[in-house]
Design a protein that fits this description.
The protein is mainly beta. It has 3 domains: 83 residues, Phosphorylase Kinase, domain 1 (2-Layer Sandwich); 180 residues, Transferase(Phosphotransferase), domain 1 (Orthogonal Bundle); 199 residues, no CATH class. Helices cover 12% and strands 40% of the residues. It has 6 helices and 41 strands. A hairpin with a 2-residue loop joins β39 and β40.
Length: 567
């Protein structure tokens, strides 16, 4: 443990504990400074925030921006960082709202997204009135919550009078039609990209074009996903925006080359998104090599969770728990009302219920036993890894073994951690000692931790296999990884985006990845991440979620759940 001694302009001294690291980026590290404040301390060799620029940025609207609060100096009176507001853990990168499965699970509908867009517009307009150019309106620099509130971060990179922008932007929001310039017009273009992606689940220049393969070429040649072009294959997840006012604005941006601050003043919220037609519902049928059995969806499903032997289906009102230990079918065990319980967790043996801060062991026929050996803390984050439930508070990580209960006692171990160092978006990332670490259930009986070989934005994980999201040379990239013997192996080849895949391991510690794609499931070998086969299925898209059980593959898409088995 070490300390970083700093002082503010008023002479107040701070002693920063370097074990209280919350996050780390290319320019500096973020440390806890107080209960509601943090300090960004620049890495050696990085030019710190200038006094004049600081005076300008600290006036940013605190409701929309995480702005610098006070400059921090070292013992030689040199600026080495600044303080700012601590962002609550219910905020996450806006990029999560580009995924249907995330929005469905979190209950983020189009009304919330319109609120997000309205707040984005307010932030851009506010910055421009101050003669500030945001520049990098990328999906990792804007944080949102489920209510539609937003916070812009990384504000010290903004262009202000007398200080030009660095020029570093992600390709997804760079305005290639105008040679990648950075000014108030490029902010407007980037804002439109975010809004389109939020409402349609697709970047306006994604998809596959026979002639123009690069995103930049599509921008230059004005070929958005809504253009009628026979050479363009549009992603299946794309949902057309039916509001004529909004589409008129997007047409002006992408097909006419105009740049302006978009407006929602004449938008009809009820017409923003038109859901694609659902396939006709057949309880059981065959398609290619698959036998497809309908499980649930008469009431729209919000989320699913599986272990090898159990399946939980969550709707707005209930939790449905199924036995999934027998190949080819699942049996409903019981239905738990959300009036009675807030969450349901399943191991391969037990069903654990949560109400407020208390857990219960389900004993059958609507009966349960209260767990008295553990009560949730006042503030916590929670994540399940197979049959182990992880609970994290400010200074502890609790590991609850779901299948190991005796009467009112659940087996539990505790280790000391710095809770604010955990990032809990799609999976848990622990920032500690200047590096990122992830947890995984290595043996099925205990959690292990492994260091990340690259700086990542997020990851999706199933057992010891997953997908990482990271930025390299201004591009967002995705690759598979596998952990074995506490070492992470990252695939050489990239994949096109997030994959809510299922993983089926064998006794050797290797196995097969089932990756959903438009109208098919790719089967990938975990040893070398080579694609070995595919299964045709018109229910599947790249946005689908797959889970592995002994009963078969569970498919969750468009509010419905299916069981897939090979003939």
């Amino acid at each position: 443990m070490g300390y970083i001694n700093v002082v503010n302009q008023g002479g107040k001294k701070y002693k920063i504990n370097d074990t209280k690291e919350i996050a780390r980026g290319g320019e500096g590290a973020i440390y806890e400074l107080g209960p509601d404040t943090v300090a960004k301390i620049y890495h050696p060799g990085i030019e710190p925030l200038d006094q004049k620029k600081f005076e300008f940025l600290k006036r940013l609207d605190k409701n929309l921006f995480i702005a610098p609060q006070e400059l921090l100096f070292n013992s030689t009176s040199k600026v080495i960082g600044f303080s700012m507001e601590y962002l609550p853990t219910d905020f996450y990168p806006i990029s999560n709202l580009f995924a249907k499965s995330f929005c469905t699970t979190r209950g983020v509908d189009k009304k919330v997204k319109l609120k997000v867009i309205d707040n984005l517009i307010k932030a851009v307009e506010y910055a421009h009135k101050m003669s500030v150019v945001i520049g990098d309106l990328n999906c990792f620099n804007i944080m949102v919550n489920d209510k539609g509130d937003i916070k812009f971060i990384d504000t010290d990179s903004y262009q202000t009078p007398g200080f030009t922008h660095s020029g570093r932007l992600l390709d997804e929001i760079r305005d290639y039609y105008y040679q990648g310039r950075i000014d108030d017009k490029s902010d407007c273009f980037a804002l439109s990209i975010l809004a389109f992606n939020l409402l349609s689940f697709t970047h306006p220049f994604k998809g596959i074009h026979k002639q123009y393969m690069k995103l930049s070429d599509r921008m230059i040649h004005k070929i958005p996903v809504f253009k009628n072009d026979p050479d363009l294959k549009v992603p299946k997840c794309y949902e057309a925006i039916n509001d004529t006012n909004l589409m008129g604005q997007f047409t002006r941006f992408y097909m006419q080359g105009e740049r302006f601050v978009m407006s929602l003043s004449a938008v009809n919220a009820n017409l923003v998104v038109v859901t694609l037609n659902q396939p006709s519902l057949i309880k059981k049928y065959e398609q290619g090599d698959l036998i497809i059995t309908y499980i649930s969806g008469d009431e729209a499903v919000k989320n699913v969770f599986c272990t090898e032997n159990k399946l939980v289906v969550e709707t707005d009102k209930d939790f449905f728990v199924y036995d999934a230990k027998n190949k080819g079918y699942v049996n409903l065990i019981d239905t738990m009302s959300k009036k009675d319980y807030d969450q349901v967790f399943v191991g391969n043996k037990n069903i654990i219920l949560r109400k407020d801060k208390t857990f219960f062991v389900y004993s059958g026929s609507g009966k349960s036993t209260k767990i008295t050996s553990f009560v949730l803390p006042n503030s916590y984050m929670i994540k399940q890894f197979e049959d182990i439930l992880i609970v994290i508070d400010y200074d502890n990580m609790y590991k609850l073994f779901l299948d190991d209960t005796i009467s009112s006692v659940i087996k539990m171990t505790t280790i000391g951690v710095f809770g604010k160092g955990f990032q809990n978006y799609q999976s848990l990332i622990y920032n500690s000692g200047g590096s990122q670490n992830i947890l995984y259930n290595e043996s099925g009986r205990e959690m292990s931790i492994v260091n990340m070989p690259v700086k990542i934005q997020d990851l999706y994980q199933d057992k010891n296999v997953g997908v990482i999201q990271y930025v390299e040379k201004k591009e967002i990239k995705y690759k598979f990884f596998k952990i074995k013997d506490l070492k992470m192996n990252v695939s050489q080849n990239e994949i096109s985006g997030w994959a809510n895949f299922a993983y089926k391991a064998d006794k050797s510690g290797e196995g097969f990845i089932f990756m959903p794609q438009d109208d098919c499931i790719k089967i990938i070998r975990s040893q070398d991440f080579a694609e070995i086969s595919e299964l045709k299925c018109n229910l599947v898209s790249s946005e689908s979620m797959l889970k592995n059980t002994n009963a078969g593959l569970v498919l969750f898409d468009n509010g419905k759940v299916w069981l897939l088995n090979k003939k």
